[in-house]
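Hi everyone, sorry if this is the wrong subforum. Our group has a chain we'd like a structural model of before ordering constructs, and none of us has done structure prediction before. Sequence below.
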Amino acid sequence: MMKAMKKQIKYLIIIFLTVHIGVKAQDLLVETENFDKPGGWVVDPQFIEQMGSPYLMAHGMGEPVENASTKVKFNKKGTYHIWVRTMNWAKGNWEAPGRFQLKIDTLVQDKTLGLRSGWGWEYVGITKIVKKHVSLELIDLTGFNGRIDAIYFSTSQKEPPSSLKKLASWRKDMHKEPVVPSITKSFDLVVVGGGLAGCAASIAAAEQGLKVALIHDRSLLGGNASSEIRVHTLGIYGNFERILKMIDTKHYPNGSPKASLDQKKRDENVKSYKNISLFLNWRAYDAVNENSSIKYVDAKHTSNGERIRFSAPYFIDCTGDGWIGYWAGAKFSYGRESVDTYNENWDKWGELWSPKKADNAVMGSSVLWRSKEIDGIYNFPKVPWAMPVAKNHSALNGEWQWEFSRNDLHQIDDAEEIRDHLLKAIYGSFYNAKQKNENTNRKLEWVSYLVGKRESRRLVGDHIFTFRDVLDNRKFPDAVVIEKREIDVHYQIILEDQNNPDFLSEALFYETPEYYIPYRSLYSKNIDNLFMAGRNFSCSHVGLGGPRVMLTTGQMGAAVGFAASICSKYKVNPRAIYTNYLNEYLNLIENQKHSK
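Answer:
Right subforum, don't worry. Here is the predicted structure as tokens:
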């Protein structure tokens, strides 16, 4: 009797384990950025920190894009519940603009997707999986930026977690992702961010013999100057003309397709350095600080999910948003300082220049675009979801004035909402222009989906560069960057009439003779081995107004690249360059004027 009971209990345990292990084994999470063939969909990794992952987006400018497709393997046949993680990016009393469908093998699922308000899981339905290898396709229905992060198949009816923290942990479990990246690579210098600052830093350091890793989250170098965003480079070359001419652009109109000509030059020049290891489509996601020094930066491939740990004695943050410094605990600032903080007053502009009380106002982000004339009539669909933003505004292209910032929106935390607001402005304004007889043959030629930012976090160094430094024409003993372009601070147009659009900006200009930026503004005050170059350098809000343009930030990059070589030579941290090796450093920079 007892023996029979034990046998029965053992049998029940086996059944229990088989069922539960089987259920887990039959779950399948498909990350859409890993699709074999994205078709006309694009991988968008801009907002990983806010929504948890790169995702696929159907950026068709009003015309449905080619299907994205992939093949997946199921461990077991059976009946599966299906969810997709998606969002409706233009919620309101109209049909969602970014609608799409899911096709499994030859069967298109009945459910129209992309309807959920805010990122989360939409339930698709139930499907029978009758073979191990199954094809998936995403069918875009509109061409208006439908987006999908992941597809989840499960024999259980339980919806996956929604909160970012739980979702991140669940994802790691689903993918059996180890806590630490399995690959570690060591370098003399790690540069994160492949805009002009990052490119110039990498070249300068490589020319001095350092082994450099350059990590960039896009397939093309240049940041705002790239052919994906298309802003021309402004400013002067300072001491670094030779290096900067390798990576700059001609003064094409912003948004011009000619940006691709300089893209080829830039990419080829950076790739020509054998001691620059270029990691394109890799996005840093963590920087670990021990005893006020960064030990390593972890990065992940934006499509295949592979991870690498990058270790080095020195790091340069050229991310624009100051991510490396932020993760490592570097001091930073955000927003406008009060007029009294640095005595940044200039009566002509009053509180638009510096407010009496500090606030979170910053210069905004832009999404550039253009249209073209074609033979014959081109019909552009109605976009009711865009009209509350566009209002009556009519346009055929967008220049720098197309810029959006609002005090209650953070340029990092709310970056996707800011980008989407500008997409609505573009589509709505173009629709209005299309209603005029002279524009019937106009078609959207190009709309960027990447946010071109002007300002966000500013890391704090031993010196905070301010407008007062310009007004006083201050000469620094450690001046390494020189500029003469006017101080140019943008602000949103104040809306007296609610029919006016909120996505256009104006600029405050201050004509200035040459001004100088010290080396002490290019390394962190409290993280011992961290340099920074670009719009995240140590400055005030108004102080950023002039040096934020790309040739100036490129000068910063070259300056810290050379500084890193001296740090490496003497095994010292960045501050020691100023205190102990300044003459040698300045001579190295001075010599760049005469190098060819």
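For your construct planning: The CA atoms of residues 338 and 356 lie 5 Å apart. The domain at 26-174 is CATH 2.60.120.260 (Jelly Rolls).
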